[in-house]
Write a structure and sequence with these properties.
Distance between the termini: 39 Å
Shape: globular
Radius of gyration: 20 Å
Number of helices: 13
Order of helices and strands: EHEHEHEEHEEEEHHEHHHHHHH
Number of strands: 10
Largest sheet: 10 strands, mixed
């Protein structure tokens, strides 16, 4: 059995796929690299086949009709043979120094029969044109270099969340969670790091900067204009987070509050994108989203209403909407996203 399966969802990725794969190859025979060619119309399939031919025991090229990012991740999970699984987007890459440290740590933990449900490392916002790259780490929040439980995890501050870039799941755990991401939908990374969490009993944090998250391409899904254009997909993800997890059934207070806060930030992003759009249709969708939250989970709604975004949303529109946008712009400047 391979130690780590790395799933690389790839759609029209000819310009950057090779860089991604080259960063993964140093894992050698400990890893399998699953390139999921998601119905690409450029040379992505050809590049994947070339790497499979050159590294037949490491690289697998898997071709499918277009199913979107979620569909590609689903395929990778189904095809993975590794004990652990990581998703690396085709325009991102792993750090040459941190990568072997992660593999050696995982190998040691497995040999000692201590393999955690969830392995976490840092990631870097590798924003185009920026010299200083922002590192998201978990120092002071998650104990380092040892197996721990949720009881030992500290408080996550605003802007510090466990994102897809930071996680390596035990493959059996993902499958046991029953997670199936929606096809033809962006922003499913929020579901990927949310839906399996109630199944995670222990975790391990290695304080190294593993994942380079490239941000800045004009066609990227996290660009503001793109997010507004795809707001219905963001709304779908938001509602699946609401409906697919029973927060009341989570007994551990640390995990419960982390998941509440994560849901809050996703709802805030959805709300702000709908406000930025400014159309009557999107204003109605914003109201419907908050009404759905109130109907589904009144206690969650009550908590969200007490937050800055919840308060701003429920203020008179002439004041609340500009306040929401101002809060978003401040966060944008602080955290460097979009």
């Amino acid at each position: 059995m391979k130690l780590l399966s790395i799933v690389v969802p790839s759609y029209n990725s000819q310009d950057y796929l090779a860089q991604c794969i080259e960063s993964l190859l140093p894992g050698g025979e400990d890893v399998e690299i699953l390139i999921i060619n998601d119905g690409s119309k450029d040379r992505t399939a050809e590049i994947a086949e070339e790497y499979q031919a050159k590294y037949p025991t490491i690289v697998r090229a898997i071709h499918q009709e277009n199913k979107g990012h979620g569909g590609a991740v689903n395929t990778g999970i189904a095809q993975a043979s590794g004990r652990y699984l990581k998703v690396v987007d085709s325009d991102d890459w792993l750090d040459a120094e941190a990568y072997p440290q992660v593999l050696e740590t995982l190998k040691r933990l497995v040999a000692e029969e201590q393999g955690p449900d969830l392995f976490i490392a840092n990631y870097i916002y590798d924003k185009q044109g920026k010299t200083n790259k922002r590192v998201i780490h978990y120092r002071g929040i998650i104990p380092t270099n040892r197996i721990c439980t949720w009881d030992e995890v500290g408080t996550f501050t605003r802007g510090h969340y466990i994102l897809m870039h930071s996680v390596i799941y035990r493959t059996d755990l993902i499958r046991a969670s029953g997670m199936k991401l929606p096809e033809h939908t962006f922003y499913v990374d929020n579901l990927y790091v949310y839906l399996p969490l109630p199944y995670v009993k222990n975790l391990y944090y290695l304080d190294v900067n593993l994942y380079h998250y490239f941000i800045g391409r004009s066609d990227q899904s996290v660009q503001e204009k793109t997010m507004i254009k795809r707001i219905d997909q963001q709304l779908l993800v938001n509602r699946l987070m609401l409906n697919e997890v029973s927060l009341e059934s989570i007994n551990n207070p640390k995990l419960f509050w982390y998941m509440v806060h994560y849901f809050e930030i996703v709802t805030a992003i959805t709300s702000i994108m709908l406000v930025l759009s400014g159309t009557a249709e999107h204003t109605a969708k914003l109201k419907n989203l908050w009404n759905d939250i109130e109907r589904h989970n009144p206690l969650l709604y009550w908590y969200l209403r007490r937050g800055l975004v919840g308060k701003a949303f429920h203020l008179p529109r002439w004041f609340g909407r500009p306040l929401l946008i101002a809060l978003y712009r401040i966060a944008q400047g602080l955290f460097g996203f979009n």
